[in-house]
Design a protein that fits this description.
By secondary structure, the chain is an alpha/beta fold. Helix content is 40%, strand content 22%. It is built from eleven helices and twelve strands. A five-stranded mixed beta sheet has the order 4-3-5-12-6, covered by helices on one side. A three-stranded antiparallel beta sheet has the order 10-7-11. Helix 1 packs across helix 2 and helix 5 crosses helix 10.
Length: 301
């Protein structure tokens, strides 16, 4: 590999499994990514990936290259964090990663931040998968999870309440609104099946009919609002949508909303300002995040 960009593209494909997904993560054209990989393999004189219908799989040489590329990545990331962490100016850029379910939550707060700090440019990455701050895929992450990684610092905003929601029109077709197993569900697709609500579904309603599988919360919300069935949603989103009703009390899956940055960046002026303003803004929404707005479940009316 002749430069860091080569390693970056190689790592993205190795992790994402397809050139299309890697291009989306890197903000490049798919053709550019495919061309760069082909050139890497030509320079190396060996195939790094095995082309399959399902995507790209590392060859033996690819696995050896992966270990070296990860070392290069860690070196550059460490340099970036240490040097960037000394920045004392309220200018520059901040890369924020958040899942799609957090967009409506944080958008007004980001607008306020931009008005207060016009010389700081925000780069917002909507990503439902895991994003590494250690490797500088982002500077700050808004994350839904059970705990924070040990090397990250920041704030726990509050417990993320989750409940089952549906449209009133769909509920009018349900014979027993208290029997969740008799309803039609919209679930997360396979890669997300380890999240607590999905585990609950497999344990408590394995015989329920699945109408659709999907990979974003907002698309899931639109489906159930259109009458496709029921689904777990954050109370912050479900309660705010007039097209939906809660049909069960919020469940405690041990999930929280976290605003986090890497410990090496906490002294950076722009990161410190961002964590303070956005953290305070999210804290003001805590009652809505925790689902304590007094919404009554449809099934109990």
């Amino acid at each position: 590999m002749k430069n860091w960009d080569d390693a970056r593209i190689f790592l993205a494909i190795a992790r994402q499994g397809t050139s299309r997904a890697a291009a989306r993560q890197l903000g490049l054209n798919q053709s550019t990514v495919s061309r760069r990989v082909a050139q890497l393999e030509a320079d190396a004189g060996v195939a790094l990936f095995e082309r399959r219908p399902s995507g790209l799989k590392l060859t033996e040489a690819g696995h050896e290259t992966l270990a070296l590329a990860q070392q290069v990545e860690e070196t550059f990331a460490l340099f970036d964090r240490k040097v960037g962490g000394r920045d004392v100016k309220l200018s520059g850029s901040i890369r924020l990663s958040l899942p799609d379910l957090g967009v409506s939550m944080v958008a007004p707060i980001l607008a306020e931040f931009g008005a207060r700090y016009p010389e700081i440019e925000l780069e917002v990455i909507v990503e439902n998968g895991y994003v590494s701050l250690t490797h500088r895929h982002a500077d700050v992450v808004l994350r839904l999870g059970q705990r924070a990684d040990e090397h990250l610092v920041g704030r726990r905003i509050g417990r993320a309440a989750v409940a089952v929601y549906a449209s009133p029109e769909y509920m009018a077709t349900v014979a027993d609104p208290s029997d969740l197993s008799s309803m039609e569900w919209v679930r997360w697709e396979e890669p997300f099946r380890r999240i607590p609500p999905e585990v609950w579904f497999d344990t408590h309603t394995p015989s329920a009919r699945v109408r659709a599988q999907i990979n974003t919360s907002l698309a899931q919300l639109e489906l159930i609002a259109s009458g496709a069935g029921v689904a777990f949603q954050l109370c912050f989103l479900g309660d705010a949508d007039p097209r939906l009703v809660r049909i069960a009390q919020p469940a405690d899956f041990g999930l929280s909303i976290w605003l986090l940055t890497h410990e090496d960046l906490r002294a950076t002026a722009r990161i410190r300002a961002f964590m303070e303003l956005v953290g305070d803004g999210l804290q003001a929404l805590r009652a809505r995040i925790e689902g304590t707005g007094g919404v009554e479940p449809r099934a109990q009316r």
